[in-house]
Amino acid sequence: MKKITAIIKPFKLDDMREALSSIDVHGMTVSEVKGFGRQKGHTEVYRGAEYAVDFMPKVKVEIVAEDERVGQIVDMILETARTGKVGDGKIFVEAVEQVIRIRTGETGNEAV
Q1: What structural domains and CATH numbers belong to the chain?
Q2: Which of 93, 12, 4 is nearest to 58 (CA)?
Q3: How many CA atoms lie within 13 A of 55 on its CB side?
Q4: Mean pLDDT, 10 residues at a time, over the chain (112 residues)?
Q5: Which of 11, 32, 62, 95 has its Cβ near the most Cβ atoms within 10 Å?
């Protein structure tokens, strides 16, 4: 099993969720996060004072899937989250050693 973590622009979340649902991916964890990379933030003016916004709002989506589905899921995320502009985000794929469903005690693929 693998954990896919995608850091994306917030306005792309609904498109990505709908696309993933269309390929039978129904479980995910979503968190609002802030960060910066090459996008580096921007400056804003508030009540006449200019200040820098260093951390940009992003959304972190985490999905655990069977190894065979990872490529399809990553491709769908790339297709729906890409705008072609700086700050589109990143996708990380990591190995998952064990999954346990708390309610039933199921483990492995059955717990996903």
Answers
A1: 2-111 (3.30.70.120)
A2: 12
A3: 7
A4: 97 96 94 81 68 82 96 97 91 96 92 86
A5: 62
